Amino acid sequence: MRPILMKGHERPLTFLRYNRDGDLLFSCAKDHTPNVWFADNGDRLGTYRGHNGAVWSCDVSRDSTRLITGSADQTAKLWDVQTGRELFTFRFDAPARSVEFAIGDGLAVITTDNFMENVPTAQVKRIAEDPDDQSEESLLVITGIKGRINRAVWGPLNRTIITAGEDATIRIWDTETGQCLKESDKEQGHQKTITSLSKSADWSHFLTGSLDKSAKLWDTRTLTLIKTYVTERPVNAVDISPLLDHILQEEIGGVKGHFGPINALAFNPDGRSFSSGGEDGYVRLHHFDSDYFNIKI
Amino acid sequence: MAVEVATQKIRWGELEEDDEGDLDFLLPPRVVSGPDENGFKKVVEYRFDDKGNKVKVTRTFRVRKIARARLSKSAIERRSWPKFGDAVQEDVGARLTMVSTEEIVLERPRAPGSKAEEPSASGDPLASKSGAVLMVCRTCGKKGDHWTSKCPYKDLAPQTEAFVDRPPTADGSGPPGGAVKGAYVPPSMRSGAVDRVGHDMRRRNDENSVRVTNLSEDTREPDLLELFRTFGPVSRVYVAVDQKTGASRGFGFVNFVHREDAEKAISKLNGYGYDNLILRVEWATPRPN
């Protein structure tokens, strides 16, 4: 395959996200401006100017109209996807790390780092239909986690929130009560910081990558360990193909090209392409060759 | 995406003197032709470069469908969205998006078809693989199952002649073959090889061995045996032969059972004329290793 190189960022990439239709790709980097690209040919559609710090993550609503970004400038912002207009700013007293819209886009979970005296939190915000009605009030604040939360995502039916981070523990929280329902087993779980977490297409299981040089596949409901994928190097980013069942525990291939570490990975929802974002500031968009789809294990 | 960028300079003398201000109206309009049936699209543009020279830029694109994307209605609508933010002022030359000139292949960590540990339970692994014939194990001769280095029978295979002269190491100290995954274990250190190559091999090679040099080219081992057996029982005769041409390389070795016989042979035959050549016979010095 001949990857498409997209040089829209001046600093290392931090996060990549496709919209649901898979035609737009959002990229976040340590420079302050997230970009949006057409996912088929790599043309840049626009930029979201307004943050004043590294942008750590983003999420796009199901209808691709709203974008939410979390930034080291201690804010999370809502954007209009089409025009790049800033709609709302959530202010925090610590950098915002992970953001995700809930099913239905009526809620969003935003995590804040442990910063100065602040403990890390995961906060649930209501996302108003009309940006004028938007408020900064948190519906729920999850605390009691030691170490930075690198990723917080919604569980099935918005009933739970799954967090993972520096303390190498995956936790499932009840969104009604804010209680911790489950914790990953110390023996089975990761030994070092969890860097990334990615859900399968149907949310039935999710994959975590950790600096302990492994990625682990978990059942979302029961938090049981399904598979462990051991690598030779720390895992920075993980994603699950929505198309093929690669629950094989066997490495089927490597893709080279970036200069330096790769910080972000995302599969196109159609499963036919994926993009990677590196420390080199490039996004590389890979459309799989046909032989990928014919791999026999 | 530009496959070829051809610039053609217009001689500066042909240009008007007063090239101040915006002269873009002087330029011929942009011409777009294609895409033709091969998907080639040609765009011819004219612009002024930094020095005021008129430059013709011909860019040839190959339009191809990269992904078979079944776009939803809203996705098609998004296609026509106007650019915003920094993407608006993006000039054509910025080339933010490029197709890699390098072909990136999905690197398989193992040869397709070879298994790390557990063999696939689903029947015969050979049947399903095309091109497996290329993979022939030199040790056990099995086709398409594994490479020679991965052969499970390699320790059982008889050692080839080439390995015999390797200095054997202390018995049993070497790691058993295949214990360290992927690490190279010399044949002499593999378990199974140790005993065979062992001490008696060393004695045969190094003890009471006499080197004979300046042999004529058509001297063969029986001739040498004929010559040396008169001094006592001979355990081995060897004439070095060039592997390519088959001709003698002019030296050989004779091993005697008794050291005294060897001494006698050296004293008698050194300087002996044999087949028009004067033989040189001496103790074979043990190899430095």
From TrEMBL, chain A:
Q: Please list the residue ranges covered by the WD repeats.
A: 6-47, 48-89, 142-183, 187-228, 255-285
**Its Gene Ontology biological processes?**
formation of cytoplasmic translation initiation complex
Chief site of localization: cytoplasm
Alphabetical GO CC annotations of the entry are: eukaryotic 43S preinitiation complex; eukaryotic 48S preinitiation complex; eukaryotic translation initiation factor 3 complex, eIF3m
Q: Name one Pfam family in it.
A: EIF3I
A molecular function (GO) held by this record is: translation initiation factor activity
Would I find Cytoplasm among this entry's keywords?
yes
PANTHER family recorded: EUKARYOTIC TRANSLATION INITIATION FACTOR 3 SUBUNIT I
Q: How does it assemble?
A: Component of the eukaryotic translation initiation factor 3 (eIF-3) complex.
* UniProt name for this protein: Eukaryotic translation initiation factor 3 subunit I
From TrEMBL, chain B:
List, in alphabetical order, the GO biological process terms annotated in this UniProt record. formation of cytoplasmic translation initiation complex
The cross-references to CDD domains, in alphabetical order and at most eight, read:
eIF3G (cd12933), RRM_eIF3G_like (cd12408)
Q: Which InterPro entries match?
A: eIF3_g, eIF3g_N, eIF3G_RRM, Nucleotide-bd_a/b_plait_sf, RBD_domain_sf, RRM_dom
PROSITE patterns, alphabetized: RRM
Transferase keyword on record: no
Report the domain of life of the source organism. Eukaryota
Q: Name one GO cellular component term.
A: eukaryotic translation initiation factor 3 complex
Keywords noted in UniProt? Cytoplasm, Initiation factor, Protein biosynthesis, RNA-binding
Start and end residues of each stretch annotated as Disordered: 107-127, 166-193
Here the segments flagged for biased composition (Basic and acidic residues) are 107-118
UniProt lists the family membership as follows:
Belongs to the eIF-3 subunit G family.
Q: What is this protein called?
A: Eukaryotic translation initiation factor 3 subunit G
